Amino acid sequence: AEEAAAAAAAAATADAAATLGLGDARLIKFRELRREVYDAAAVAHDAREPFEAGIKRPYFHVKPLDAAQIANWERYLTHEERAGDVPNVVRLYERCVIPCAAHPALWLRYAAATERYQGPVAARAILQRATRVFVKRHVEAHLFLARFEERQGDVAAAREVYVHVADDVAPGLVRATVEHANMERRAGDPSRARAVFEAAMAVERSKEGAESKVYGVLVNQYAAFLDEALGDEEAARSVYQEACRAAAGNPLVWEGAVNFERQRTRRSGAERLRRVQEVVAQCFGEIG
After folding, report:
1. Which parts form a coiled-coil structure per UniProt (predicted)?
2. What percentage of the chain exceeds 70 in pLDDT?
3. Using H for helix, E for strand and C for coil, what is the string for 8-68?
4. What was the pLDDT predicted at 65?
5. Buried/exposed 27-48: b ≥16 CB within 10 Å, e otherwise
6. How many angstroms separate the Cα of 18 from the Cα of each of 4, 13, 26, 148?
7. What is the DSSP letter of 237?
8. CB 148 within 8 Å of CB 123
9. Domain layout of the chain by residue ranges
10. Helices and strands, number each (H, E), in the chain
């Protein structure tokens, strides 16, 4: 049908050219250009057809899409991005996030692509749409937004996102605490970084107690942060000493304290052994 329409249009053009007295060379050139446009459109259509055929649900539904549908959208997006037509890419992403609204990975991909094509302001708008409406309970989207804001130099906005994660989205998530503390360190505020860990530990103790696994992990992460990121060995040791008193029955705390002393390679073997023995003696004393 399309070829018949093209032939009819070409015949009409030829008749018009004859009526207007246009030369054969100009008419031939016009028809060649028209054919090139048609052929290019046909090639693009044929390339998209398998992806379009794979879209089974183009509308939003509360039930998540299956893996095959997600994979089809991802391949389709990759195809359009390789083609390099930015308006087409944007239109396809907007189509995609309707049925895929509950899938944070596709929102994050959309934001990353938008930042490349249209800049950070447009990318921020995409991330805010995602985290405020469609995937507001998905921690990965919020952490992505926090890292994005830090990369743009807006530390206050990044901090606000991390606080929101800790208070509302995923309370007690150790990874979010570590990322927040490292962001504060990179921003040049080690005291605020320490406060992030200490606040998280205090909240965990008040909710689950010092014997909880999360509390033990936070203690180990905080000590490692002080020792490795800030270079403050004594502060890290103090964290373990206080935690061992507060969490006498938490094996993660004691194991971390022993390993911390064993790994002091700048000290002699005898000194490391003495300190490990002190930790072990304290452990049995606290438990006993």
Report:
1. none
2. 86
3. HHHHHHHHHHHHHCCCHHHHHHHHHHHHHHHHHHHHHHHHHHHHHHHCCCCCCCCCCCCHH
4. 92
5. beeebeeeeeebeeeeeeeeeb
6. 21, 9, 11, 62
7. H
8. yes
9. 50-153, 205-288
10. 14, 0
Task: Compute the distance between CA of residue 59 and CA of residue 102 in angstroms, rounded to an integer.
Answer: 12
- Which distant-in-sequence residues (6+ apart) come within 8 Å of 171 by Cβ? 203
HSE-CB at 170 with a 13 A cutoff on CA atoms is 17
Answer whether CATH 3.30.160 is correct for domain 50-153.
no
Residues 253, 216: contact at Cβ < 8 Å?
yes
The distance of Cα 84 from the centroid of its chain, to the nearest Å, equals 23
pLDDT digits 0-9 by tens, 177-228: 999 999 999 999 999 999 999 999 999 999 989 899 999 999 999 999 999 9
Among 13, 4, 2, which Cα is nearest to 42's?
Answer: 2
